[in-house]
Structures are given as structure tokens and as C-alpha cells.
Amino acid sequence: MGPTQALRRQQKESASEEALDVQREAAQSARSLARSAASKSTSQTRGQTGGKTRSKTAAKKAAPASPAGNGTDREDTSQAAWDKIKRGDATLSKDETLKAYEDMLLIRRFEERAGQMYGMGLIGGFCHLYIGQEAVVTGVEMALEDGDQIITSYRDHGHMLAKNMDPKGVMAELTGREGGYSRGKGGSMHMFCTEKAFYGGHGIVGAQVPIGTGLAFANAYRDDGKVCATFFGEGASNQGQVYEAFNMAELWKLPVIYVIENNRYSMGTSLERAAAETHLHRRGRSFNIPGEEVDGMDVAQVREASARAAKWCREGNGPVILEMKTYRYRGHSMSDPAKYRTKDEVQKMRTEHDPIDMVRARILDEKWASEDDLKKIDRAVKDTVSAAAEFAQESPEPHPDELWTDIYAPVGEGAR
Fold it and tell me: Where is pLDDT greater, at 297 or 59?
């Protein structure tokens, strides 16, 4: 090796060592920021936001690690504390019930129309319908405040509508049109609306869980009193990244509600055949995260449990897991014939435990509305969905220039 080559090699090794030093310093800085965010106290009272009062938050310090060799462990106290919380009244007022009925009916009719349009070839790609699970996101959203975030998987149309996103924009994205929320480039599984605090729509199983945890970290860092509801299915509950997120969320006491939408069959395999622990609300026990099983077909039960969870998070107690026991009437996606269950099973659930029918029955029993009143609501919802379907077919397809937008680097600086 000549003198020039030796010098270059020495310079490269020196640069590598400097880069490692920079990385170590950055990692140490990140850890310090995280500890600072997690240990903020609650001396400040939230102001009014969107007509709702922010509660005080107390981002409690994580318990210190046990000294090496002393044989002690952190005490598992969160579940006991959670269990002591007084349950609220799991009933809705007249106005709340009528609003929940209309919101769930919009999701149901929207998804039915999306299924029809998929069959007609107007919607391409993957399409996962939310029919049967409407009470879950409706009840959770009823318990959240303005600015609280929602993030979910690819079965996401209902979550967008619950977040009050425009049905026209959602349907237009399904048809791949310019008027869609992602300008026709995302399709069913990739829609976002930060103005409504909706962060997707994610096509990779479980990928939204660490992202939702990151949103909660941002809330804790800003000390803004917001909570992130992170939805995922029972199939995703076996993903390793979920447990990495659990560990970080509890360690830093992040304000995140993990909502497991347990519809029993994942992508086509029953939970009993795929999971060693089928009580999914217990999945956080090894991280000291409390959990609770909830009837996900009862919107009032969902709202009550979610309200307790949101309060728990805002008070600085860290994450909580809500396992919503629910059921999807359709296959995993439009291409799934769902032969792993019987038609009688599906019909029994529709007949005895449909979330919309149960709310409808209460409205009639309480005489809060007549049959004719409910028919008017249904007609108005169908009109909204029809208008969305019409818009989704009339909106132009994206211009070819859209291929060069929303990419990592401007054209001419590496993108080709």
C-alpha cells in the first residue's frame, strides 16, 4: 500500500469514528428528550379547544430501573389501579343515541355501496369493508376530544367517516380519482387527513401501531393534552413491532389507547388457531399496561370504556388496551369468500347482536323517534352516499404530472 492509499484509509477510519461519535451523541440526546417529555408534571390547566376543556395532564415519571443484582422488579400496579376506576353509566342520552345511530348507519350504507361499486369494477385494488364493526370506531370517537388522533389499518373507511371526513373525498379515493383525499394515488388503504387528525390507513399489518405510539410521544413532548387512539386487529396483535411499541409507551407513559378490534378471524384464521393467549386485553401485562375486554357491538359500552381510557391517558398514567369484541359480516377483503365460518354463524350475529339494530330498538323503545323518523334518517344517509358515489365517478382521474408529486426528492435532485 502506497503513502497516498494509507493516508486515504486513515482519513476514512477517522471519519467513521467521528460519525459513530455523532450517532452516540444523537442517541443520548434523544433519550434525554424522551425522559424529559415523560416526566412533565401537571401544573398547567388546559384551555378551551373546540368548545371542550382540556383536563390537566401529569406525565408521570417512569419507575426507575432496578439496580443490577438486587433481584427486585418493577411493581405491576397499573392493572390494579385501572380496575379500581369507577365505571360510568354505559347509556347514551337521546341526542347521543340518535347521533350514534346516524353515524353508524352512514358507515354501513357507505360500505355497502363501496362493495357494489367494487363488484362493478369501479373500485380496484384491495378493499376491506367495516360492515358489522361500526360501533367500535363510533363509540371511541364519541369519547375523544377535538384534536385527538386516530390511526388504523387498511379497514379504514369507517374511521374516516367517524372523523367527519367528507364521504365524497373518501369514495373518490376508492375510485382513484383526483377528488380523493390522496388525490387518487392512495386508494382504499392509504388515506390521510391531518386537518381531521386522521393519520391513515396503513397497508402493512401492525405498521400503524408504532406510528400511533409516535403520535402519542409527540403529544407528551408538546404536553398538549391530546390522546392518540391506535386501532389494530387481533391478527396484528401477534406482530413483534406491537410489543416494541407497548414497551416504549409504558416506559415513557405515553397517552395512547390501543384499540384491538377483535373480529375473530383475522385474514381468514380463527383467533383460537392462531394465538396462544386469546384474551387480547391481557397482552400488555408483561409491560404493566392495563387492559379491558369490551362488547364492541354495543356503542354505549364502547363509549364508556373509551371515555375512561382517555381520562386515564390525559392524567399521565400511560397507555391502556381496550379489546373490542366485534364481528365482521363480510370476508377479510372483497376477494375473501369467508368459507372458514358458517352462514348460520354470521346470520345469528346479524340477528341477535347487530350494533345498529340494537340502537334502533332502543330509540323505538324509548319513543325517541318513530319508524317514519328513522326511515327519514336512512333516506338522508342514502342520499349522502349516492352523492359521494356520483362524485367519485365524475371526478377526473389524476393528471400524469401527479406521478412527480409527494415523492422524497424533487425531480432533478435524485428522483427519476
Answer: 297
